[in-house]
Design goal:
The two termini are 30 Å apart. The chain has a two-stranded antiparallel ribbon. The longest helix has 31 residues, at 281-311. The chain is 73% helix and 1% strand. By secondary structure, it is an all-alpha fold. A hairpin with a 2-residue loop joins β1 and β2 (45-46).
Length: 497
């Protein structure tokens, strides 16, 4: 029997066959004009599905990064000028600490319903809800600038913290839905970059906009200016999301995404997905280690003002600049790690190395904080930030690799839930230790848990499921040898993912 007969007696003239072959080459190049859902089938066998990378993907990830920035800025805007807000609202330090910890506490009960909503309704609905809540929270704060309205400002912060639940798990999902397999880690890093940049601005700007003055009316005006600026930016971003943010590209960016689109919604069970993830031992270890690392970062960020002021009184602005240094260095670390992962795919090795260096950075920072030289603190804090916040996108991407084809939103949600739990525990415990025994004892407390996290990271089995799926798909691609005749259609092999 001839090859044509084996493939179903396909009869094509030379021009048609050549056109089909050229279209297939375009598909492999990621620039096919083929409509979504149209699959090459020969003799009943399913072939490579058309994929394409759209320029719009960069606009989507930058818009997400921008509204993530606006939200994360507000996480630390109270804590970094802790003493000023204590004086204005006449509350104690622990109460102001809760203005940061409310971000962590709100995340824990709401992440599971929000992740379910992400899987059911998609990226656009989640983006709209996130920016709407963030915008509402900023305007509530504008109305709270009076010493007797602390409850109102807390309500505004709660709205912003609720918006964060719709934001934190998005970077890996956007990267998978919009970006090619060689770009996902870089795209995820850009998504996390916005969150980090917002924290950096949150460290830098509030001490500049709200100086420590005794006149309550003047202080209220400074706070009001800061809140109005935040509300204006949040409103603009909400409008942009309404008109610009798109659910997903017409054609998928990778074969892994093309396969994921074929799963009927009725076959997906969110509960079953959670249970499968909780039976995934490498992922469980990653949940614990990610929570330990990021929880330490949350504690350091929340208590930074108290630690700096304790050793360097009156240095509120420099406390903010040290926080800025931590996050800017972490942003550089995030981008470098993302590019490195896209080039090497060494997920476990890179994660372990960065985790160990986070431990080293924390030890050095703890031992130099009380030396009396602020320039030394700037250097050691920058080194700590480079690795500790540089770890954030590594954890996201490693989780997606370990859990494919489960939803990226679900895996990211579990990671962030762990981080919030540990963040609350570490912030409360380190704050009490600092009050009783000083900053050195509080930082040693964090070092112990970073050491535990480093050991557990070394025990994670590197099972890169998403990379293996993409390799299988590429292995199934037909040979594009120029010596082959264009008279016969290319043989397309079915890839079982």
């Amino acid at each position: 029997m001839s090859e044509k007969e084996a493939l179903g007696d396909t009869t094509l003239n030379g021009d048609q066959t050549k056109a089909d072959f050229e279209n297939h080459v375009k598909q492999d190049a990621g620039d096919s004009e083929k409509p979504p859902g149209d699959q090459c089938e020969i003799g009943g066998h399913e072939g490579q599905r058309p994929t394409r990378l759209y320029k719009r993907r960069w606009l989507i990830v930058l818009l997400f990064s921008s509204y993530s920035l606006c939200n994360s800025f507000q996480w630390i805007q109270y804590g970094i000028i802790n003493n000023i807000f204590m004086n204005f609202y006449n509350v104690d330090a622990f109460t102001i600490d809760w203005m940061s910890m409310i971000y962590m506490l709100t995340y824990i009960p709401f992440i599971f319903p929000v992740t379910w909503l992400l899987d059911k309704k998609g990226l656009r609905v989640i983006a709209l809800v996130a920016t709407a809540l963030n915008c509402a929270g900023t305007w509530i704060k504008v109305a709270s600038v009076r010493p007797n309205l602390f409850a109102v400002t807390f309500l505004g912060q709660f709205c912003c913290s609720f918006a964060q639940v719709f934001i934190l798990g998005m970077p890996s999902r956007i990267a998978s839905v919009w970006f090619g397999s060689e770009e996902v880690s870089t795209a995820c890093s850009i998504g996390v970059f916005g969150n980090q940049l917002g924290i950096a601005i949150g460290f830098l700007v509030p001490p500049i906009l709200v100086p420590n003055v005794d006149d309550m009316d003047e202080l209220a005006n400074h706070i009001r200016v800061m809140f109005y600026m935040t509300a204006g930016v949040a409103t603009l971003l909400f409008i942009l999301v309404v008109f610009v943010f798109q659910e997903r590209p017409e054609l998928p960016p990778t074969q892994a995404q093309a396969t994921a689109r074929l799963i009927p919604p009725e076959q997906y069970s969110y509960t079953a997905s959670i249970l499968r993830l909780l039976r995934n031992k490498p992922f469980i270890l990653l949940i614990i280690t990610y929570g330990l690392n990021v929880g330490c970062f949350y504690a350091v960020g929340t208590l930074l003002n108290r630690m700096i002021i304790m050793h360097y009184p009156g240095e509120e602005v420099n406390a903010g600049r040290i926080g800025l240094t931590i996050v800017i260095a972490g942003m550089v670390g995030s981008l470098i790690c993302g590019i490195w992962l896209d080039k090497t795919k060494t997920y476990k090795q890179t994660t372990l190395a960065v985790y160990f260096m986070s431990l080293v950075g924390m030890v050095v920072y703890a031992s130099t904080l009380s030396l009396g030289h602020l320039w030394v603190v700037f250097i050691t804090a920058g080194a700590l930030g480079f690795f500790m916040t540089g770890y954030l996108p590594l954890g996201f991407e490693f989780a997606v690799e370990l859990t494919y084809p489960e939803s990226e939103g679900t895996s990211s949600g579990l990671l962030n839930c762990s981080a919030q739990v540990f963040g609350i525990i570490f912030t409360i415990c380190q704050g009490k230790i600092i009050d009783s025994f000083g900053t050195l004892a509080g930082n040693i407390f964090l070092c112990v848990f970073l050491l535990i996290g480093t050991v557990l990271t070394g025990l994670i089995k590197s099972d890169l499921r998403r990379q293996n799926a993409n390799k299988l798909a590429k292995a199934a691609e037909p040979s594009d040898c120029p010596n082959e005749s264009l008279v016969e259609p290319p043989v397309i092999i079915e890839a079982k993912l």
